[in-house]
Specification:
The complex is a heterodimer. Chain A is mostly beta strands. Chain A has no helices and eleven strands. In chain A, the strands form two sheets. In chain A, strands 2, 4, 5, 6, 9, 10 and 11 form a seven-stranded mixed β-sheet that branches. In chain A, strands 1-3-8-7 form a four-stranded antiparallel β-sheet, with no helix packed on it. Chain B is mainly beta. Chain B has strands at 3-5, 10-14, 19-21, 24-26, 33-39, 46-52, 59-61, 64-69, 74-79, 88-95, 104-106, 110-115. In chain B, the strands form three sheets. In chain B, strands 2, 5, 6, 10, 11 and 12 form a six-stranded mixed β-sheet that branches. A four-stranded antiparallel β-sheet of chain B has the order 3-9-8-7, with no helix packed on it. In chain B, strands 1-4 form a two-stranded antiparallel ribbon. In chain B, a hairpin with a 4-residue loop joins strand 8 and strand 9. Chain B starts with a strand and ends with a strand. In chain B, 32% of the residues are buried. Classes of the chains: A mainly beta, B mainly beta.
């Protein structure tokens, strides 16, 4: 079955720790995205990548980092510099092209203790 | 600037009622697409429809229908005979302006609760 997997589903982090969220897709999509969702805020773009070894900042990139070493994988690291990291994180992918729909993973809920 | 407004934050309806979710957008593009996504309680966004700005005909898919009106910059979504399984947050989205950009601008979503 083709799709997007995110792990873990729930993640707890102590303040001051970095944590990495995994996102893998087997849809052969070139583009991948990370969104953050807070209650009542909709989805906000953190980073996106349109091709391997290249990525761009979205609207709220501060305190986050990404890598895109393989087409299938786009991990997101939430660093200690992120002031309020508790949120629901969604990964998505799409085929190349501006108007292609994005397909989403099941999400990771990160809670900072 | 791109903007998507979903003015209805939350809507509650009784099962079998019809309900319309509003989406108003702003774009400087002359050609564009619009999207609707559904986010059930499980959290994963599910793609519902993509619509080309050239095509203003209403789209119907089962109990779902979409009314695109370029003159009012609206792309409204109607669920006929709502069911409890329709309970979810629904997002309208619009691609960023500019060639080569794959980003989407999402509205803040409308939470629909269908009461049995």
């Amino acid at each position: 079955d083709g799709g997007i997997t995110q792990s873990p589903k729930y993640l707890f982090r102590k303040e001051g720790q970095n944590v990495t969220l995994s996102c893998e897709q087997n849809l052969n999509h070139d583009a991948m995205y990370w969104y953050r969702q807070d209650p009542g805020q909709g989805l906000r773009l953190i980073y996106y990548s349109q091709i391997v070894n290249d990525f761009q900042k979205g609207d709220i990139a501060e305190g986050y980092s990404v890598s895109r070493e393989k087409k299938e994988s786009f991990p997101l690291t939430v660093t200690s510099a992120q002031k309020n990291p508790t949120a629901f994180y969604l990964c998505a992918s799409s085929s190349s092209g501006r108007y292609n729909e994005q397909f989403f993973g099941p999400g990771t809920r990160l809670t900072v203790l | 600037a791109q903007k998507v407004t979903q003015a209805q934050t939350e809507i509650s309806v009784v099962e079998k009622e019809d309900v319309t979710l509003d989406c108003v957008y702003e774009t400087r593009d002359t050609t564009y697409y619009l999207f609707w996504y559904k986010q059930p309680p499980s959290g994963e966004l599910v793609f519902l429809i993509r619509r080309n700005s050239f095509d203003e005909q209403n789209e119907i898919s089962g109990r779902y229908s979409w009314n695109f009106q370029k003159s009012t910059s609206s792309f409204n979504f109607t669920i006929t005979a709502s069911q409890v399984v329709d309970s979810a947050v629904y997002f309208c989205a619009l691609p960023f302006s500019g060639a080569g950009s794959y980003q989407l601008t999402f509205g803040k979503g409308t939470k629909l609760s269908v009461i049995p």
